[in-house]
Design goal:
The complex is a heterodimer of chains A (123) and B (201). Chain A has 123 residues and is mainly α. Chain A contains five helices and three strands; from the N terminus they run H-E-H-E-H-H-E-H. Chain A has one domain. Chain A is elongated, with a radius of gyration of 17 Å. Chain B is α/β, with parallel strands linked by helices and 201 residues long. The radius of gyration of chain B is 18 Å and the shape is globular. The chains are: A mainly alpha (123), B alpha/beta (201). Chain A: Residues 1-29 are annotated as: Disordered.
Chain lengths: 123, 201
């Protein structure tokens, strides 16, 4: 169910601390990241890169949401957001936010809703 | 390397891969995860989000120094609507103590499904209130459990004080087609709202 699963694991926290260099972000360009934001690699991994950065670039050759990345890498959202900020700032990935519900006070556009409907009807 | 989608960088609404998000809300044990599971193309996954109740400090280790940070698990699934459009479904944490987190969760969502267990109507009161408070468009789905009584929909609408313009539908969250129909009802409702908004301009 939706209950919190793991008790806080100190060794996990140490791992996160090392991964992020102690940053707990998300800040800067990643502060707007949503769980449904799609991440797309713009560059191939380069030698000497932090393992997790490399892993993200490899997994996001096809667009993957932040939530899926987190699940696959076993990283909580805010730790992943720090790693993604690095990649965004280096221009190695692109972030595509979910199409929002309200554009300037209006509802989502009808064409999009029609597209969602026809997709659902094919299920 | 596969360069699909790289040719047209751009923000949402442009070409290339796009995503939309729908939240599945409701009280504890109303079938949110069941619905995500039944309708998702992928095996549902869990993502952990550490959320901070107070303002976010940047420089300390998460969860150690600041007691107001809480880790919640969100179960989610996805549906490929077509080659370039993904629908992500997120089940909200059901326990009351997590409701303070909801503001962030609903940002950027198209809308929400509020699941109601007709045997325990009260468990979803709060979810409905939150949708109204946050102005999140939603439909109410009565998850019909095998031992649920067959309440007339209108009786439930009265009991939960749901306005006439909010659709109330019955469903079986375990069933893919039934869950799909709830999502269709939500999108239809969003279309109707858009149409009303257009007329009133």
């Amino acid at each position: 169910m939706s209950a919190p699963r793991r008790p806080t694991d100190p060794s996990g926290l140490e791992r996160y601390y090392v991964l992020t260099g102690g940053r707990s972000g998300p800040g800067g360009s990643a502060s707007s990241l949503d769980v449904a934001t799609l991440i797309v690699s713009l560059a191939a991994p380069v030698p000497g890169m932090q393992h997790e950065h490399e892993d993200i670039l490899r997994r996001c050759r096809d667009p993957l949401s932040v939530a899926e990345l987190g699940a696959h890498l076993g990283l909580p959202f805010n730790i992943l957001a720090v790693l993604l900020t690095d990649l965004l700032e280096a221009g190695r990935v692109e972030a595509r936010d979910p199409i929002p519900a309200h554009g300037a006070g209006r509802g989502p556009d009808l064409a999009l809703l029609e597209e969602v409907l026809s997709g659902l009807e094919r299920l | 390397m596969d360069l699909k989608g790289f040719d047209h960088p751009g923000r949402p609404g442009g070409s290339g891969p796009r995503s939309v998000k729908v939240m599945i809300a409701g009280g504890f044990g109303t079938g949110k995860t069941t619905m995500v599971r039944s309708v998702s193309d992928i095996k549902p996954l869990t993502t952990e989000e550490t959320l901070t109740q107070a303002s976010a400090d940047v420089d300390h280790l998460i969860g150690v120094a600041d007691k107001t940070e809480t880790t919640v698990s969100l179960d989610f699934g996805k549906i490929s609507l077509n080659d370039s459009l993904m629908l992500y479904l997120f089940g909200t944490p059901g326990q009351e103590r997590f409701w303070f987190l909801w503001n962030g969760l609903f940002k950027g969502a198209l809308g929400a499904v509020v699941l109601v267990d007709t045997r325990r109507l009260a468990s979803s009161f709060r979810a409905i209130e939150e949708m109204e408070r946050q102005n999140v468009p939603f439909v109410v789905a009565l998850n019909v459990f095998p031992d649920s009584k067959n309440y007339p929909v209108e009786e439930i609408r009265d009991a939960l004080d749901i306005p006439e313009n909010i659709p109330v539908v019955a469903c079986d969250a375990r069933d893919r087609a039934s869950s799909r129909d709830v999502l269709v009802a939500l999108i239809q409702h969003l279309k109707d709202r858009s149409a009303v908004a257009m007329e009133s301009r």
